[in-house]
Amino acid sequence: MLQKKNIKLGIINFFILIFLLINFTNSKSDELDKDSKNLLVEINILDKVSSKNTILKLKIGEEKKFQNLIIKVLKCENSKFDDDPEITAYIQVKDLNISDNERVFIFNGWTFSSSPTLNPFDHPVYDLWLSSCRPI
Asked: Would you give the DSSP letter of residue 79?
């Protein structure tokens, strides 16, 4: 009888522990989401035809229209190392001139400030690269 009572208490304690762990992880991820939404991302855009360079400033999750492109930054991170800073960002770019429904984004992926050719943005008119990611 005492053994059955101990088993029931163990099961109850197990579920309480699981509940507390889930709440703790959710609160930590909410804090990280709040911190990441307060970042300002700077992207340099080069118009290859006119040779004009433009700096576009975006908040995380914000869409901005530049000429016929819609640019949205979903995530941005700075490296933890001080000697050689690396900035990475997850960017989505749509071209409004392309009406092909199968290809929604002309670029959808991570880009790196130190090596933009690692995952290049390929467009006949525009070139873009990441320049900074800093708190607002």
From this structure: -
d(C-alpha 99, C-alpha 74), whole Å: 23
In total, how many domains does the chain have?
A: 2
**What pLDDT does residue 29 have?**
47
Please identify every stretch of the chain with a pLDDT value under 50, giving residue numbers as ranges.
28-34
Statement to judge: residues 58 and 22 lie in one domain: no
Q: Are residues 112 and 58 located together in one domain of the fold?
A: yes
Cα separation, 88 vs 79, in Å, equals 8
Q: Which helix (H) or strand (E) holds 25?
A: helix 2-37
- Give me the domain span that covers residue 45: 40-135
In this structure, the answer to whether residues 129 and 62 fall within a common structural domain is: yes
Provide the whole-model pTM. 0.67
